[in-house]
């Protein structure tokens, strides 16, 4: 055979035969030289095709079945062809039609006996005096080109989650682009053709040539057909695949050019109907009321107006709120009697009460010695029994924990004149940065830790750093040797196929992971370098690996701040950076960032409280009448209740949270200050002539039931939160419930005792804050105002301005209509609230992570890795699991891999960016006899690696020349497999070979590195693989809604596939555990709010025994919460654990705005307007000063916080809560009480209070008090009955302990 070409060549030279273009003739034959990089070049011999011997012919048939008879290639040429195509075969072997078309293209080019008909040598080159082919024209029909491209365009290359045509065709979009890519003349040491190939459809008519037109195979061919994953256009596939679901649109109604949501439209109609009914009913009631009241109303009014008090005592009696104690329920009656007795006892033994109550709470504070704060996100937001937590635990223990991520983003300035990052200077800067990082050392327990000590090394000793520098093997000197920027651009298209583009860790580097800010595949237009350092992670900090990594991460962040940032800025670029532990470290810093702001907020509230408890300041007596010391003492009691709660739970081993430290003091202070103001103002409202113990008793009898009612409702509302699964909310609810309970106990014990001491101090003319100093005796004029009872400015405003305005019938209509409209708007707006918690909000505003997260959203072009985890894969021959998973030839059309590939076609719905990397597909391809360079064995039956790996490719000689592997054969022949599938024994035996096989140019399907952690081999020999995973990626996730929706979509997809395949499959991504809470955050919020409000209703109903009062409180609290949800939507505040805690807390504070006003209204005497006036003048003024103004001054300070989370979730939400509570409690609630009392009056057909009663009848109303009292309670009734003439006798008898 070797002498034939030489003889023919000699004859051609001697006789000068012209080039012949006809069947049976060659255009190229044999090898006449080689390039400097070793690539061989054909001889431009136009000779007749040569008949091969039988052995050579069978070899040709095994690879090129279309070539029969004579051939135009030598055995050396064929071996070169075989070695070159074997690198491409693993990419397309899963689709037989694509493989056959691809091989036919090169078989016809190399060995076709009719080569001269479609190959025209256009240029030659001299190498060692031999002419070699340097360029050819390859005439080929468009039909073949189109057929070849169509059969290959959807074929997947599993391990890199991409398409085979991206590697074999440079991402070609049609066959012409593919041919152009194949025909490029390769540079030195670059993969590709050693000579240029120009593909043309038709030769000149005069040339006598014809285009190559071997039949192309369709991927849907019956015999060579591909799976649905590689051929979705096949008829069998299109009939089984459902059309992609359209993104669900919210229901909307269009009226002309106006389009509104259905819920908005329904609420608008409902509001119109309700307002119309309200207005109609009000009008009818007003007309009927006028008819009934007009005949008899004049005379009583005249009688009443004729009554003129004749003494100062009678005037004081008129100024005293008259109580209709008959309105109290049985429970309230018992509470009133208890508080009356209790008040006297406390007033007589204040020191004992103060010492005992404070001592008990101080005992609870001892538990602070075990105080700990929980900062780990997984312990804060992930509850016991969490599906995502269990799935993460399974993934970590059976496969491998997800690696830690350290990342740098170097980007061009936003308005830079050079938007592209890909320049020589910038890449050299990247080398300088890498040198700094490589030289970084961190101290951990006395040992130095470097990146190489902790980094992930999937394929050897080199770190799997995801950086553009991998195209230069991470070696600076290779930059110029490889060709600089041009080499980088070359690698963008050949990063899997070119040896020079493979990374230092022997794996391909996808440009998507190393670049950012580009569109499509335009990598050269990228505006950012993304450098990622994957670091090994460990379950439960095994071997201190986590601690070592954290130590290095802290040093890495410091390096970035101190050295890398100045380096990058000097080049006009921007740098952002992050480590795995960055968020936790910054959250710790955030917890202390606003300590001063919070402290100022509380100090402002303390100052206001101290001032508001005192009387109206007078120059000559303010230091006596002020109650700064009482206010400060009360605040200390509030803080003591919080500390006692934390101490108790710390003692039993529960950790505190930052939410507790930030929210509960605010909550308890709001409740405590309100109670303080109510108690002090109630005592101050009593007649000054009464003994102090009697004033305290009367005050407690008046406000004690409402304080008890409010506190019990709040305690129960928070206590139900203990059943929430989310740890942060559950712990908050438990701590808050106990803190409110302790605060209530201290308020009715220690604070009442402090009130007694303070009033004694004032009566004894002792100086506030310095009670040891007693003011000298002075004239009566100087004492004017000291101890006198004069309504304050706020009380006068409430009685004389606020209440009369609300009493007007037009104002009532406007108020009711406005607040119900507000509630309807709140419901509509609430549907627009999105779940989530933007990371930028949680972090300090000056955190380096702020820029990092902004750049992630701007530049990143790939989302987080997504794994589909399969449990209990049965690989036995009897099971169908294998075909239900794979996506190559003969796999089920609805297999897992095929369904993932279909889902990736609609990424806007599925949030799946790419087909999955399937170890099952690659394993089956690796086993395939067609992939003859992959699964091989020595004669002794052990694994034989590909020819380009040791020992087949020793370091001291060229690959393929070693004698060690010359006898290696493929693991199986087709006859050894059943329908191209291995038997149970074959699968069991070859799977470890596959997972330990290194990928290389001769066999890119090796599983080591790509799938090392994708299969759990523990117990696999039983025929069941307990756990395995299939990796893909989410689309870029820039907003919290994207993370939540992507998780929901993945779970829904997995559930559907699991049901379809009858297999257990679940999705896993590293962020799922933290975002699981948002999947049902609305459910969590609504259930907890409903239970809390229902608990308040139940407590109110039990204590008041009044369904209407309880229903009113329920309605107003619900409206406050609904309106607060509306405010959240307006300010774009997301629904998360923080806002849920705030909403639950809002129930407690809303109770304070409602219960006291309702109770005061229920026990006030007179008609409904008089009762409203008395309730607002007494209790309304206390609520307004005690909770509204106090919280208002404190909240405003939070607006200056450095942390965005305080501004959004505390300043905005608390401010809205205080304002809404004030408006509902002091504007809407009084109007609603009047309307409901009118309705009840009409239903019952009788009057509860008689505005026409004479003075004696009013006294009789209050005379019902003795029926509720025992013992000393008779005092008040007798005082009212005897009148002013007997006051002195009664005071004497009471003081002496005798019965009058």
UniProtKB/TrEMBL annotation:
Region (Disordered): 288-310
Entry's localization field: Endomembrane system
GO MF assignments: lipid transporter activity
Biased composition (Low complexity): 294-306
Cellular component per GO, a single term: membrane
Spans traversing the lipid bilayer: 265-284, 351-371, 595-616, 628-652, 658-683, 703-724, 736-757, 809-830, 1085-1105, 1112-1134, 1140-1163, 1175-1200, 1206-1229
Membrane topology (UniProt): Multi-pass membrane protein
Keyword Amino-acid biosynthesis: no
UniProt name for this protein: SSD domain-containing protein
Biological source species: Brassica campestris (Field mustard)
């Amino acid at each position: 055979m070797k002498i034939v070409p030489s003889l023919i060549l000699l004859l051609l030279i001697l006789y000068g035969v012209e080039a012949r273009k006809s069947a049976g003739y060659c255009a190229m034959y044999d090898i006449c030289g080689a390039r400097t990089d070793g690539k061989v070049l054909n001889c431009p011999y136009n000779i007749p095709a040569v008949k091969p011997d039988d052995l050579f012919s069978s070899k040709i048939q095994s690879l090129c079945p279309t070539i029969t008879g004579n051939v135009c290639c030598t055995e050396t040429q064929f071996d070169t062809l075989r070695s070159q195509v074997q690198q491409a075969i693993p990419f397309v072997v899963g689709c037989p039609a694509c493989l056959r078309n691809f091989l036919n293209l090169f078989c016809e080019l190399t060995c076709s006996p009719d080569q001269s008909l479609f190959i025209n040598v256009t240029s030659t080159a001299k190498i060692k005096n031999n002419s070699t082919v340097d360029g050819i024209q390859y005439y080929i029909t468009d039909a073949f080109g189109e057929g070849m491209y169509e059969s290959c365009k959807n074929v997947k290359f599993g391990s890199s989650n991409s398409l085979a045509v991206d590697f074999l065709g440079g991402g070609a979009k049609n066959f012409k682009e593919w041919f152009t890519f194949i025909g490029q003349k390769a540079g030195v040491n670059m993969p590709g053709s050693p000579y240029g190939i120009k593909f043309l459809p038709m030769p000149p008519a005069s040339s006598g040539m014809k285009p190559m037109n071997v039949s192309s195979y369709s991927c849907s061919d019956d015999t060579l057909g591909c799976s649905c994953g590689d051929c979705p256009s096949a008829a069998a596939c299109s009939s089984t695949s459902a059309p992609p679901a359209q993104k669900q649109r919210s229901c909307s109604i269009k009226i002309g050019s106006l389009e509104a949501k259905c819920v908005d439209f329904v609420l608008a109609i409902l509001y119109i109907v309700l307002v119309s009914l309200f207005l109609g009913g009000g009008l009818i009631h007003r007309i009927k009321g006028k008819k009934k009241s007009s005949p008899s109303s004049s005379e009583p009014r005249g009688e009443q107006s004729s009554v003129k008090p004749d003494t100062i005592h009678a005037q004081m009696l008129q100024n005293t709120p008259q109580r209709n104690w008959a309105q109290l329920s049985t429970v309230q009656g018992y509470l009133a009697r208890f508080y009356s007795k209790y008040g006297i006892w406390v007033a007589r033994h204040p020191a004992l009460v103060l010492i005992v109550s404070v001592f008990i709470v101080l005992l609870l504070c001892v538990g602070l010695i075990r105080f700990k704060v929980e900062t780990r996100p997984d312990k804060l937001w992930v509850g016991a029994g969490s599906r995502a937590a269990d799935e993460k635990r399974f993934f970590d223990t059976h496969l491998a924990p997800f690696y830690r991520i350290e990342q740098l983003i170097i980007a061009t300035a936003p308005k830079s004149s050079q938007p592209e990052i890909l320049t020589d200077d910038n890449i050299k800067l990247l080398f300088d940065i890498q040198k700094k990082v490589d030289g970084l050392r961190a101290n951990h327990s006395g040992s130095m830790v470097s990146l190489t000590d902790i980094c992930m090394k999937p394929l050897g000793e080199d770190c799997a750093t995801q950086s553009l520098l991998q195209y230069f093997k991470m070696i600076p000197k290779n930059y110029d040797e490889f060709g600089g920027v041009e080499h980088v651009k070359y690698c963008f298209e050949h990063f899997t196929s070119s040896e020079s583009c493979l990374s230092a860790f022997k794996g391909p580097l996808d440009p998507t992971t190393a670049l950012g800010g580009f569109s499509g595949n335009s990598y050269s237009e990228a505006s950012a370098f993304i450098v990622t350092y994957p670091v090994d992670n460990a379950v439960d900090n095994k071997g201190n690996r986590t601690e070592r990594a954290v130590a290095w991460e802290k040093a890495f962040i410091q390096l970035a701040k101190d050295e890398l940032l100045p380096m990058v800025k000097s080049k006009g670029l921007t740098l952002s950076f992050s480590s795995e532990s960055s968020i936790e470290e910054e959250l710790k810093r955030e917890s202390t960032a606003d300590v001063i702001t919070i402290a100022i907020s509380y100090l402002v509230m303390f100052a206001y409280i101290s001032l508001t408890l005192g009387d109206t300041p007078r120059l000559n007596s303010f230091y006596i009448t002020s109650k700064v010391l009482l206010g400060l003492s009360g605040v200390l009691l509030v803080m003591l209740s919080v500390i006692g709660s934390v101490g108790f739970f710390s003692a039993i081993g529960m950790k505190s949270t930052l939410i507790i430290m930030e929210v509960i003091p605010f909550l308890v202070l709001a409740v405590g200050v309100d109670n303080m103001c109510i108690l002090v103002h109630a005592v101050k409202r009593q007649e000054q002539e009464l003994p102090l113990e009697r004033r305290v008793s009367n005050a407690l009898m008046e406000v004690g039931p409402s304080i008890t009612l409010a506190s019990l409702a709040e305690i129960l509302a928070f206590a139900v939160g203990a059943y929430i699964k989310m740890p942060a909310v559950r712990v908050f609810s438990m701590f808050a419930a106990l803190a409110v309970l302790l605060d209530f106990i201290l308020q009715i014990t220690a604070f009442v005792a402090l009130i007694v001491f303070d009033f004694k101090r004032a009566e004894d003319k002792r100086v506030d804050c310095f009670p040891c100093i007693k003011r000298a005796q002075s004239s009566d004029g100087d004492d004017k105002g000291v101890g006198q009872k004069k309504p304050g400015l706020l009380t006068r405003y409430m009685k004389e301005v606020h209440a009369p305005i609300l009493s007007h019938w037009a104002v009532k209509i406007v108020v009711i209509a406005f607040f119900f409209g507000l509630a309807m708007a709140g419901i509509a707006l609430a549907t627009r609230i999105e779940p989530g918690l933007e990371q930028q909000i949680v972090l300090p505003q000056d955190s380096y992570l702020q820029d990092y997260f902004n750049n992630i959203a701007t530049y990143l072009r790939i989302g987080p890795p997504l794994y589909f985890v399969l449990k209990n894969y049965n690989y036995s021959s009897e099971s169908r699991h294998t075909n239900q998973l794979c996506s190559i030839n003969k796999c089920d059309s609805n297999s897992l891999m095929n369904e993932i590939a279909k889902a990736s076609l609609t990424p806007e719905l599925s949030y799946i960016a790419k087909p999955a990397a399937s170890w099952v597909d690659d394993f089956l391809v690796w086993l395939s006899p067609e992939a003859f360079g992959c699964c091989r064995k020595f004669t002794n039956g052990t694994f034989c690696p590909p020819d380009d790996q040791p020992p087949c490719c020793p370091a001291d000689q060229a690959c393929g020349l070693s004698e060690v592997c010359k006898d290696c054969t493929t693991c199986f022949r087709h006859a050894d497999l059943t329908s191209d599938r291995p038997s149970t024994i074959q699968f069991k035996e070859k799977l470890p070979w596959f997972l330990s096989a290194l990928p290389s140019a001769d066999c890119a399907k090796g599983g080591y590195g790509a799938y090392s952690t994708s299969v759990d081999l523990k117990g696999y020999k039983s025929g069941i693989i307990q756990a395995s995973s299939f990796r893909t990626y989410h689309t870029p996730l820039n907003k919290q809604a994207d993370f939540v929706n992507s998780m929901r979509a993945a779970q829904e997809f997995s559930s559907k596939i699991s049901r379809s395949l009858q297999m257990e499959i679940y999705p896993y991504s590293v962020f799922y555990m933290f975002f699981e809470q948002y999947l049902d955050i609305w459910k969590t919020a609504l259930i907890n709010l409903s239970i809390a409000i229902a608990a308040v209703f139940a407590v109110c109903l039990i204590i008041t025994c009044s369904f209407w009062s309880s229903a009113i409180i329920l309605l107003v609290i619900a409206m406050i919460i609904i309106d607060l949800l509306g405010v959240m939507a307006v300010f774009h505040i997301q629904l998360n654990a923080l806002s849920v805690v705030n909403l639950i807390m809002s129930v407690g504070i809303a109770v304070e705005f409602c219960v006291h006003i309702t109770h005061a209204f229920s026990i006030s005497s007179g008609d409904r307007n008089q009762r409203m006036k008395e309730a607002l003048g007494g209790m309304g003024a206390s609520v307004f000063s005690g909770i509204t103004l106090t919280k208002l001054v404190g909240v405003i300070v939070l607006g200056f916080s450095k942390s965005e989370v305080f501004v959004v979730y505390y300043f905005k939400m608390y401010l809205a809560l205080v304002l809404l509570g004030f408006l509902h409690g002091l504007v809407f609630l009084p109007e609603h009480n009047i309307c409901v009392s009118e309705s009840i009056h009409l239903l019952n057909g009788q009057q509860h209070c008689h505005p026409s009663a004479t003075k004696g009848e009013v006294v009789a109303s209050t005379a019902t008090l003795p029926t509720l009292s025992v013992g000393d309670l008779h005092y008040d009734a007798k005082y009212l009955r005897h009148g002013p003439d007997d006051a002195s006798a009664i005071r004497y008898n009471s003081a002496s302990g005798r019965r009058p």
